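User: Predict the structure for this protein chain, please.
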Amino acid sequence: MSGPAKRINLRQMEMLWAILRHGTMGKAAQALNISQPAISRMVRYAEDRTGLQLFERRGSRLVPTPELLLLAEEFDRVFTNVDSVQRLTSALAAGWGRPIRIASMSMIADSFLVESMAAMRRDHPKVPLVVMMNNRAGVEASVLNENADIGLVHGFVDVEDLTSVPIALGGVVCLMPEDHPLADLDEVTPGALAEVDLITMGRRSPLSRSLDAVFEEHGIDRRIAVQIADSRLAAEFVHAGMGVALVDPYFVGSIPLDGMAIRPFRPAVETSCFVIHGRNRILSKHTERLIFHLRSVGERWMSEHAAHIPAPR
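Assistant: Here is the predicted structure, written as structure tokens:
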């Protein structure tokens, strides 16, 4: 084998992949519906073309070389993608839409996504929906890397390559037992929380940074007892007597709040829910329809819970 190496084509990759999968040239030839001499010639041609020895003969057996095994890892990815294209082509030909891939923070999925997806399925029953749960950073990364068509997050969106569409607007709330002294207040201020153990979002979250700025402006240090990643956990910790929760309001309606009181936090700290997508990404009509349902569900959530969760002013 000499001369400059050249690329192998998809058919040659398919032949080599078939030999590796089936174990022998004879079985590979049968699977590809060609003769064994033909597949032998294709192996020799692939070796000449690449300048690589792809198999070693050990008696009557063909043993793949380390170079071929390394290539096989890439073959696996290539044919997985080819299979995906074939499935999508068949689905489109049968009238099925392209799957809509949604990355979401879990709390928003409970509050808004499930109902929106149900409405979407009623409108377009042949459009598959794929949901991937992640934290905020993971959702943003999935959308930026185009592993998801849209993402659902809460808090401020300040990533240059992302476009955000608001679906619900709310403000930080204080969650406490209904017999807690703070429940007698119409609204809770930083001063009222100066000596109170707090259950709140992790220090790195955008919401936590906003709260830090408000407390610093009032000259008060937050006494954080528990940091959480999902506001639905807040009620459990409040029930356990571990403090008062200072969190986003989007848990309301998705978990039972018996024995709990909710008060708005002032000065208001806005925390909105958004659909995000790539700034330069053209959304399909079905994805646009799903966003419409998300906004409708968000508006209904704000209307139903306005008495308990006043919007920021």
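The radius of gyration is 28 Å.
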